[in-house]
Specification:
Length: about 525
């Protein structure tokens, strides 16, 4: 008897070891698959946007569906491994569960239409805030819906319900699919278990759901009958005492931090990506196109990114962080896109150098990486990365993000141009630039009535070369060093004109202009009217 128990235990341990080996193997190859998947998915979407022929379009859609299936498997493996390692830290908060579930529900609408499935969502919680972890719920809903669509035939139905029962938030996903035999129902939550029905699947999705529900201190129930379908019910506790203190967010904390935990909560969905509005954005700052530096050691991906964005931006490229640093010492750049894992100098070290260097600290840095784990994302964000994008990524979304970043910057320049005020906290996004701008303002104000104050003296007092001062002020304000001096002086002139105590001639000398006529001409150029007219307003 003891020998049998010992053999059972050894068999169980051996099976567990095999499962762990499977997970490690699949997770390792999952990392390697992300870059080639990017080089398939991104150009494929470009082709779909351009191809008009029906047959060609259908073939490309077939490729896209199967590529997305592979991506879904990769992401499931990554998420499952994170759940196993306890990386999915639970953070519950009172929030609108209806909106979270609806977002995932809508992602499957096109699939429901394609399979002619009667697809419905019922809830009375539209306006109620309930207690749950947003990231957990996204993953749970996505995996349950993915499972339901996998086993539900054309013309059948899938129904999602969300409600409160006793002291639990209940999420229910019901289908009229093939159903699960009674003797198999306990096994469907085991890792790598697949029903013997010839359907494709990884055997990970339901196991991941089960693990996430456990971590959420909840429970999962299954009702199923062969030929009639299945009902999966998730119960998430609403009593705050169930959760540890560190698992509760008070609402003032930044919930967005949770977003780094998941590889991709909605990766199974193949949607028609909305094309960003690219009109009137290629020419910025008086006809100058934004300059993007792409740092990527994979030559194919680097060339693909360069070719795909050449219509919008000026592109520079480097094969590693060290090459990028050398280039940044010589070139003006508006935004950097960098891989994380690279030889010589990786993306994290490059980002740290950029953000700690006065010449470059204003430049946004977007990290692209096959490493989607939370620790890598946080490492990048902690050294100052402005965004962290996991491979494979959508080229159109990347382009849209870059365009939005450049738009935001140039709108700040426009506001700066249309006001006499210079407000460092509104013009900068880091302390180094803010301190530099405050120092620059103080130096100009100290030399307010100095008619011989030049950009050379300005640079000396800033402990910078004249060219570096020009480039830095241009990057922060969109204007040159001499324009910056004029702006500070005209701001002071406007204040003096409003006071009405001094003549235009007196004010011109007080703000550093040796002739009233030159002062009046420059004033009109910057302010839009003569000093005498401004004083009368």
């Amino acid at each position: 008897m003891q020998a049998e128990i010992r053999m059972e235990r050894l068999d169980k341990e051996k099976q567990e070891e095999i499962n762990q080996m499977k997970i490690r193997f699949y997770v390792n190859i999952s990392h390697e698959l992300r870059t080639p998947l990017t080089l398939i998915i991104a150009p494929l979407q470009e082709l779909l946007n351009r191809i008009s022929g029906h047959w060609e379009h259908e073939q490309l859609l077939y490729i896209q569906r199967n590529t997305s299936r592979l991506l879904h498997l990769v992401n499931q493996l990554m998420d499952f491994r994170r759940a196993e390692l306890g990386i999915f830290e639970l953070r519950v908060v009172y929030s609108n569960a209806y909106k979270r579930v609806l977002n995932s529900f809508l992602n499957y609408e096109s699939l429901a239409k394609r399979k002619d499935i009667d697809y419905n969502f019922y809830t009375e919680l539209q306006d109620e805030n309930v207690l749950f972890d947003e990231n957990y719920l996204d993953l749970i809903v996505n995996n349950l819906l993915s499972n339901a669509f996998k086993y539900t035939e054309v013309g059948e139905s899938i129904t999602v319900k969300l409600y409160i029962e006793n002291d639990d938030l209940v999420l229910q996903v019901a289908d009229t699919g093939i159903g699960i035999p009674a003797e198999k129902q306990k096994k469907v939550f085991e890792r790598f278990y697949q029903l013997e029905n010839g359907r494709e699947g990884s055997g990970i999705g339901l196991s991941l759901v089960h693990r996430l529900v456990e971590l959420h201190h909840g429970r999962i129930a299954l009702q199923s009958e062969v030929g009639k379908g299945s009902v999966f019910s998730i119960y998430l506790p609403q009593n705050k005492s169930v959760y540890a203190q560190e698992e509760l967010l008070d609402g003032s904390e930044d919930i967005r931090k949770q977003r780094v935990y998941s590889t991709n909560a909605h990766d199974v969905y193949i949607g028609d990506e909305e094309k960003p509005d690219e009109e009137n954005v290629t020419d910025v700052e008086g006809g100058k196109r934004g300059t993007i530096l792409i740092v990527e050691d994979n030559k194919e991906l680097r060339k693909y990114l360069v070719n795909s964005m050449a219509d919008l931006f000026n592109l520079l490229e480097a094969e590693n962080g060290q090459k990028a640093v050398e280039l940044l010492k010589e070139q003006e750049v508006d935004l950097i896109i960098t891989d994380v894992m690279m030889p010589v100098m990786d993306g994290v070290k490059l980002c740290k150098w950029v953000k700690q260097n006065l010449r470059t600290c204003h430049i946004p840095v977007y990290m692209l990486s096959a490493k989607a784990d939370v620790k890598y994302q946080l490492e990048g964000l902690h050294v100052g990365a402005d965004d962290y994008i996991a491979k494979p990524f959508s080229l159109e979304i990347l382009r849209a993000k870059i365009l939005n970043a450049l738009r935001t910057r140039y709108r700040i320049f426009e506001r700066y141009s249309n006001t006499t005020e210079v407000e460092p906290e509104k013009l900068t996004n880091n302390t180094m630039d803010e301190e530099l701008l405050r120092k620059a303002i103080a130096i100009v104000e100290k030399n307010m009535d100095n008619v011989e104050f030049s950009t050379e003296q300005f640079a000396r007092e800033m402990n910078m070369s004249r060219s570096n001062l020009h480039l830095k002020l241009k990057a922060i304000t969109g204007k040159s060093a001499i324009d910056f001096i004029h702006k500070i002086r005209f701001n002071r002139a406007c204040q003096l004109l409003k006071e009405g105590k001094y003549s235009v001639s007196e004010i011109s000398f007080m703000v550093g202009y040796n002739t009233p006529s030159y002062f009046a001409a420059r004033f009109k150029k910057y302010i839009g009217c003569l000093p005498t007219e401004y004083g009368k307003k």
